[in-house]
Amino acid sequence: MVRERASNTPRRSVPRPGLKEMLAMRSSILSVVVTATTFASTAAAAPTERDAAAEPRAERPHAEDVDPAHAVVLAEAQAGLGTRSFDYVDRVTPGLRSYGVSAAPRVGIAGEVYPLAPFRSDLPSGLGLALGYSATPYLQSEGQDGAALETRWTSLDAALRMRVPLARGSMVTGTLGYGGVDFGFAADPTQLRERATGTGVLPEVRYRFVRAGADGRVAVWRLAVLAGLDYLFVTSTGAVEARFPRSSAGGIEARLGVAYPIVNHVELRTALRYQRFFHDLAPEPGDANVAGGALDELGYWQTSLALAF
């Protein structure tokens, strides 16, 4: 029979943790877990240097790049050549002269401003004002007796424009405005009689018209193709209607060009512009000047520097 030995060594009692200590341990463990989870999530979301370098540059806008389709102010300095051909149709009166200019130097300035563009991004932001002026600095014509006559050729336009951007560098624009083309000759005492009767007179004109049309700009590679077409509602022709009081006239204008950006804010542009004025002279028996109609064609080639801000 095995008997349990009694030990003289006193037993040590292991203290059990109380409820307060257990709650404190649980809170500490939860804090460690939350901290580790937050650190892991932050590290996974943060992009590495390699990822940042791999981002395409196109996604990073540059404040110095100005898209002409969203510019607030555009200014343009122009230089080029101009041509003119005026001829009568079904001419009966022999003294009615034709006229032609093969090439004359032209200079001009133009500008556009869109005052709402900095503050809005909807359709009204495209409402703007355009102004343009061009002239021939030196031109002479041959008078009735072969004498040289100083010749003036100027153009002026003012228009409201509604610009609608399509993509970067591309847009369509509607135009409604008022303009004029003056082609006249310096006063010469030897020409006064002929001017009064309309016989042998060079074809002076003073066109005034309402312009309505549209322009387009399409970005192609680094270039932009420019095109436009307007109808010109002619309200006055000057000396032509003085010689043909029942006459009426109309006109069209077409434009085609390209633009190439050379530095930030600056484009090099070259363009052709064609104006065609057609006259119905409506003669009647007994009129001093008799012709069925007239056609006045003006052509322009210009190169310009355009600034956009």
3D structure, described in words:
With 309 residues, the protein is mainly beta. It has one domain: Lipocalin (Beta Barrel), CATH 2.40.128. Helix content is 14%, strand content 52%. The protein has four helices and eleven strands. A ten-stranded antiparallel beta barrel has the order 1-2-3-5-6-7-8-9-10-11. The protein is elongated, with a radius of gyration of 40 Å. The model is unreliable at 1-14, 43-64 and 192-199 (pLDDT under 50).
- Describe the sheet with the most strands: 10 strands, antiparallel, barrel
Distance between the termini: 112 Å
What is the fourth-level CATH superfamily?
A: OMPT-like
Overall helicity: 10-25%
Using the alpha-carbon principal axes, give the shape: elongated
The name CATH uses for the topology is Lipocalin
Strand segment count: 11
List keywords for this structure.
11 strands; 4 helices; disordered N terminus; Lipocalin; ten-stranded antiparallel beta barrel; 309 residues; mainly beta
Short recap of the structure:
The chain has helices at about 20-45, 50-55, 190-195, 240-245; strands at about 75-90, 100-115, 125-135, 140, 150-165, 170-185, 205-220, 225-235, 250-265, 265-280, 290-309. By secondary structure, it is mainly beta. The chain has one domain: Lipocalin (Beta Barrel), CATH 2.40.128.90.
